Amino acid sequence: MPLNYEKLKEWSFPPVVQSVRKRDVQFYALSVGLGRDPSDERELRFVYERDLVVLPTMPAVIAQPGFWVNEPSLGIDLLSIFHGEQKVTLHRPLPTEGDIAGQSRISEVIDRGAGKGALIFVETKLSDRVTGALLCTIERSAFLRNDGGFGGPYRRHPPQHMIPERPADLQCDLPTTGQQALLYRLNGDDNPLHADPAIARRAGFELPVLHGLCTFGVAGHALLKSVCNYEPARVRSIGVRFTATAFPGDTIRTSIWRDEAGATFQCRAIERDTVIVDNGRLDFA
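Structure tokens predicted for MaoC/PaaZ C-terminal domain-containing protein (285 residues):
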């Protein structure tokens, strides 16, 4: 069944309300690797209820629309879908407890042509359910490897933030564990590609893959540590483009180029010498 462009254009997401509690904040930080050194008080702020603060990448898992692409009438090939890009823009500090309302919409569908795939862009706005105050805007895209050529209009992909043509100013290496994907999926991503070896093999992988958003969280940790002195209030926005699959157990090296407004970055899986995140950008508040 080909991708149903008309159905996608008309797709309406129901509002999602999520009650965020301190344990959710702590678990998210643990699931992306913080707290490995129990004596590091800078990381302790994200995993211990005393003076708890929220990681800037956490909004990406709050009040999201779920695994909606598995709706059969959309005609999406689930084994060929990959996370393309992700960006979080913070308008206000995210509370460690409270009811968060999320409203999503499909902002763009790009047909790259037969054999070239397609792109779906989704925007989610998170607000405080009680006050209505806008907290953050989340933008993400999905690359549908086998779903191009459905007859949708061709549009040029938005320009990427380019990596400087000079050596990085600094690097930060952070390990992942063999159970990282199994932990991270408890944030609400139930795609079996991240847990079931048989499904991973059907998709062409030797083992379950690490979530793109987990890699996003690891990169966010590296930047928070390296250029923000673990102060989340310094982050205005962070965005990435996923270029290759990460696997549980990879050591992720984040190369960082600093400037006055923020930092440009790229992530590589060291053991496989593979760039898994490119064109990354962090802007200071």
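The mean pLDDT is 91.
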